Amino acid sequence: MNVHVYDTYEEMSKNAAEEIISLLNSKPNSVLCIPGGDTPKEMLSYLVQAYKLGRVDFSQATFIGLDDWVGVGPEDIGSCQLFLNSNFFHQVNAKKENIHLFDTMSEDLENECKKKDELVEKYGGFDLMILGIGMNGHLGFNEPGVDFGLKSHVIDLDETTQSVGQKYFEEKKELKQGITLGVKHLLNSRTIFLLANGEKKAEIVKATIEGPVTNTNPASVLQQHENIHYYLDQKAASLLG
To answer: Which of 53, 70, 135, 241 has the least CB density, counted as fewest CB within 10 Å?
Structure first.
């Protein structure tokens, strides 16, 4: 377990980005998973700037999406796909054919999950899995109570996730289900970064790093990974012993 604590969110984001740059410079065809949401936003901005300065090349990398809201289209405000396209993919030289995100509007979501599982297997798993953490400890949309043995799946969203998720939308949105990579995919990744910032994340971060491993806090399972790196700002780390 590797816990990295930085004074500010910006410093945390920069250091995580630098590790990604280092990985791609040593292995240009890396397989990466990058989440949407507020937490990785500054990290992605730093990666975009590094690309514009010629410090990193994304053209050989493969990107597989972590999760998204079922029934929210790729052009809808609030979708993970729109967030990633706007904040990252459309600003760097990632190739369209190397970007694999969930089709949240598919009429056959079970088959959509199957396709992602086959894709992950084809590429031999992830070189780097980057995660945020929900207020309820969810990873992607692996909600409290999730089976740690699952691969990609559709899941009913926890009330906390439904409520907190409203911040991404301009108008109130019904958010009943998510589609996500499973904990099994996460744990099979060669390296995991978990990013968390802000005082509001302090309690769940403490439970995740120092508490028991339990599916009531899905993020606690990361304690079992041999190459987990927690990237935290001082506020998120404030309750750690």
So the answer is: 241
